[in-house]
Specification:
Largest sheet: 4 strands, mixed
Structural class: alpha+beta
Radius of gyration: 18 Å
Helix content: 25-40%
Strand content: 15-25%
Bound molecules: zinc ion
Number of helices: 3
Low-confidence stretches: none
Distance between the termini: 68 Å
Strand order of the largest sheet: 3-1-2-4
Mean pLDDT: 89
Length: 101
Amino acid sequence: MDYLRYLKALFLILQHHHKYLNRMPYYVLEYDTNKDGERHVHLEKSDCYRMPKKDNQLALGFHDDCFKAMDKANEMYDNINACFNCCMECYERPKKIQEQS
Ligand SMILES: [Zn+2]
């Protein structure tokens, strides 16, 4: 009986964990730099048209949001930016555009 209760508790924990992992977005970093020398963070499940090919992706892992994914990427490389298509809230516009507006 205790064993069954233990199994039930374990099952509930696993179920919760599974939901949590499924909900948390997974981020990748594009290895190749763009013309400004930046590497871009992408959201993996976004079907982003700018998503780099698999052999040009570095795993950033599961993060609550793109800001945390950016922190992780900044630990790995300098000149990190976010993809303006799939990580819009983290995308930093080039300085020239910022100064005009
Ligand atoms: Zn993207």
